[in-house]
Target: Protein kinase domain-containing protein
Amino acid sequence: MHRGIRPGNLAIVSWNPPQCRVINFGSAQMGINSNDVNVGTTPYCAPEMWRLSRSGKNSGLGYNEKVDMFAVGVSAYQIFCKQPLWWGHEADEYVLDVMKADLKSQGGAPLDVQNLIRSLLADDAELRPCAKDARKSLDNWHGPENQG
Model:
């Protein structure tokens, strides 16, 4: 798990096909589960991370690699909607609803990319795609320069 994905830790290397490289592995952890509470940049932290933070390390709650997928969704929202980090705290239900509405109104991303970002912003980690499935959903996308 990287646990620190945000636009500043992504290097876009290609739009066609869409590719980026993750950089800065200072918060990364080997393994598939964690209950660390003091990692990541708060506005990019998945809901399960801030629930754990509020409940305490011994609450029995934890998280997995899907926290990175949530952070990719928040980062993609910022990139495609050209939005700054306007909320400054965890992405609660209100913030997630606004981000999902912005995807439609801003028109900065094709519909298949909007749908992917919405799925990455799912409150429930089980509903978020893994990295492999997210990449697969973009197999037919050919970048902004080829959009009709």
Q: What stands out?
A: The CA atoms of residues 11 and 21 lie 5 Å apart.
